[in-house]
From TrEMBL:
<dbReference type="InterPro" id="IPR037171">
    <property type="entry name" value="NagB/RpiA_transferase-like"/>
</dbReference>
<dbReference type="InterPro" id="IPR050313">
    <property type="entry name" value="Carb_Metab_HTH_regulators"/>
</dbReference>
<feature type="domain" description="DeoR-like transcriptional repressor C-terminal sensor">
    <location>
        <begin position="66"/>
        <end position="221"/>
    </location>
</feature>
<protein>
    <recommendedName>
        <fullName>DeoR-like transcriptional repressor C-terminal sensor domain-containing protein</fullName>
    </recommendedName>
</protein>
<dbReference type="InterPro" id="IPR014036">
    <property type="entry name" value="DeoR-like_C"/>
</dbReference>
<dbReference type="Pfam" id="PF00455">
    <property type="entry name" value="DeoRC"/>
</dbReference>
């Protein structure tokens, strides 16, 4: 199947681009996609492997994958933290390495909705922890609630460090879970400086929920040289 060949090796194409490549109409492409039985699915106008779309995020699994790259980008992010900073540390497996890189007596305040981050930070002397609690989501190891959003409105964050499950050229910075979006957006709005912390493997990946565009961040720590 020609359409399947276009999407080989995890490539993601917009329906319009696929139609141009194959010299056919978008209606024909949508019809050929069907219900995913051919191994392809359409998500937000983009065609991708049904296996990739069916991937489910598990924090416990993610904590054991790509650890060297995650550690490197997280340490670069941690080097930006200064005494008296109030930092937001997002959920996920990458930023737990930022938390682990904070020194004792760092004299910083850490704001997070993530259980794994909170557990690490709570053991450090000289670090004030603000946990944005609420309903716990075990798949992401994070909390969400209206109370958390209200708390964020009262916190002045000097630096925000944000994670991503996918970074797409046109659809922006994405995550697996819609419950993460509101907290991420609220924390971004309260952050004087915003940093995306993600290794290069996330480039080109499109996940269900978009929470930001790349130009909303001061820099992407871990950006691939070819991007």
């Amino acid at each position: 199947m020609a359409l399947k060949k276009l999407c080989a090796s995890g490539k993601i194409l917009h329906i319009a681009e696929a139609a141009r490549e194959l010299g056919t109409s978008e209606i024909t492409i949508r019809r050929d996609l069907g219900n995913g039985e051919n191994g392809l699915l359409c998500l937000g106008g983009y065609i991708m492997s049904a296996n990739e779309n069916g991937e489910r995020y598990s924090l416990s699994h993610a904590q054991g994958t790509n650890t060297q790259a995650k550690t490197q980008v997280a340490r670069r992010a941690a080097a930006l933290v200064e005494p008296e900073d109030t930092i937001f540390v997002d959920c996920g497996s990458t930023l737990q390495y930022l938390a682990a890189s904070l020194p004792h007596n760092a004299n910083v305040t850490v704001v997070t909705q993530a259980m794994n981050i909170a557990e690490m930070v709570s053991r450090l002397d000289g670090v004030t922890l603000i946990l944005l609690a609420g309903i716990y989501h075990p798949e992401s190891g994070s909390f969400s609630s209206d109370t958390a959003l209200g708390m964020l409105q009262e916190i002045n964050i000097t630096k925000g460090f944000f994670s991503a499950a996918g970074i797409h050229e046109s659809e922006g910075v994405t995550c697996f879970h819609f419950h993460e979006v509101a907290v991420k957006r609220a924390a971004m709005a309260r952050s004087q400086r915003r940093f995306l912390v993600s290794d290069a493997s996330k480039w080109g990946k499109l996940r269900p929920a978009t929470f930001a565009q790349l130009d909303e961040f001061e820099t992407w720590i871990g950006k691939p040289e070819t991007e």
